[in-house]
Amino acid sequence: MESGESFNKDTTGQKPTRSEIQNSKATVRLPMLLGITLAGGMLIGATFFGGSKSLNTIGRGYTKYREILQLIENNYVDTVNTDELVDFSIEKMLEKLDPHTAYMNPQDAVAARSQLEGGFDGIGVEFNIFKDTVYVVTPLAGGPSETAGILSGDKIIKVDDTPLAGKKIENSAVFKALRGKRGTDVKLTILRKNEKEPKVFTITRDRIPTYSVDAAYMIDNKTGYIKVNRFSETTYDEFKTALTALKGQGMTQLLMDLRNNPGGYMDRATSIADEFIAGNKLLVYTDGKDNRYDRQTFARIAGQFEEGPMIVLVDEGSASASEIVAGALQDHDRALIAGRRSFGKGLVQMPVTLSDGSELRLTISRYYTPSGRSIQKPYVPGHEGDYEKDLEQRSKRGEYYIADSIKNDPKLKFKTDGGRVVYGGGGITPDYFIPRDSTWQTSYLVQLYSKNIIREFAMEYTNENRKKLEKLPFTEFDRTVTINDEQMNKLIKDATDEGVKFNEKEYNRSKNYIRTQIKALVARTIYQKNNKGGQNNEFFRVIGESDDTYQKALKLFDRADKLEHGMFTYNAPEKK
């Protein structure tokens, strides 16, 4: 999702990958990842905390903790902030449980919840903090900022009479400044490129919807493509709308992209899986300490696409609710899972708002796929560092590049409806392995992103050519617009001016990728207003041309068709 006063989501902190750089992840702009990574795998509508267990043990611990806190407050040699001590002690205590039980202070809790809500009140811009300055990446189509005349590349230097710049500026401060009750006015002082004097805009805040379906379009006359970036409040409704539209355009086979989707609400995930799985088959079940949190979720509706070849893309950034969908489809032999092994998060959290507005996300159960697989990867309580380094270790083992490097536990072997072998204990292993393409990844490219060179260049190109570009239908834009050598030389000069030393060998490796990125960013800005539901179809159409995983997946529909009809019996993963 690329909308709102927010940064794009990140996933789990690995080195920059194709999809991270393609979708402007960590190396493009600092992400607002807190709400996304902590949201994955939430169970909503669960029975609230209860039970009849004695509180004596808890009471003794509470008394001891209160005594120590009081002694510190009254007698410690220096003045201390007891609120900070409490927050720190809670965080350290939770480390003894599991990697996904988490505590958030009130400010972080609000930011996290907003990532899964259907919208917020604000001015409708996507922003980026670069060099201690807030840049407008894009005003949202039809939003208050676009209506007022805000452009991509504008620098927001003041909000009302308060400066919005400096080394300590953080995304939370920008959220606080730009968001507010709908109907209220906010005055922005803007510095526009090539203009010496700042401009002042008065913008009336309004409801800004947020979206989780990034793209939904027909690749050809029979193949549909849907990309889901998380499972939020509105995801199922967005997905149903997209699926209906594609079927109306003649779709008979579907490529669903869950790469770098870190999860969200479990019930939205199962509702989407239900659109593809016929009858009343089991979709997922959860198992907790007692039966309060034990659930079985079955297919219950006549879905829109229960027949037809289907491929689901996953990678190491696909977690939690994404794994629920992929696991159900794989276990019932409904879809061919392609890509790389998923993250491996099979723990379910219940969000509990505390009295001061802070939030505890407590693990209450584990979830299991229909075949009985727990997808949670191993962890040792109190050793979060090792857990967090798992993706780094996968890279060192070569797992992103060689299928044989995936080490499944032979003791955790399960079978799909059709008898194919699948494994538990650490993510969804794909049926068809597609290695990460690193041919274009260079240090020079990473520096271009870290200095924001590519995005700045794309914004400048768009603004200089906007009138001409807006007259072109996308098919003509895609056919005729190319970032030529002269323009690429200008980008090199811009980079050099910003301190990025030119490396000809690395530049030649990354050159075609850079061209595609610039063109995709331009397409997004020009055509975004033509899309419904916050989708960036033209951006992903352009990106798809150089997306190796996407292109290889399109060649697998014959296998997906055989799988659907029970004619494809290989064990996961097939190695190619």
UniProtKB/TrEMBL annotation:
Biological-process GO terms, alphabetical: proteolysis; signal transduction
Q: Which Gene3D superfamilies match?
A: 2-enoyl-CoA Hydratase, Chain A, domain 1 (3.90.226.10), 2.30.42.10, 3.30.750.44
Does the record bear ATP-binding in its keywords?
no
List cellular component terms (GO): outer membrane-bounded periplasmic space
Boundaries of each PDZ domain copy? 109-166
Q: Which SMART domains match?
A: PDZ, TSPc
- Annotated region Disordered: the residues are 1-22
Read off the Pfam families from this record: CtpB_N-like, PDZ_2, Peptidase_S41
Transmembrane ranges? 28-50
Query: Which InterPro entries does this UniProt record tie to the protein?
Result: ClpP/crotonase-like_dom_sf, CtpA/B_N, PDZ, PDZ_sf, Peptidase_S41A, Tail-specific_protease
Q: Tell whether Nucleotide-binding is among the UniProt keywords.
A: no
Domain of life (superkingdom): Bacteria
Q: Which UniProt keywords apply?
A: Hydrolase, Membrane, Protease, Serine protease, Transmembrane, Transmembrane helix
GO MF annotation, one? endopeptidase activity
Question: What's this protein's family per the entry?
Answer: Belongs to the peptidase S41A family.
Q: What is this protein called?
A: S41 family peptidase
Q: What organism is the protein native to?
A: Spirosoma aureum
- What's the source species' lineage? Bacteria, Pseudomonadati, Bacteroidota, Cytophagia, Cytophagales
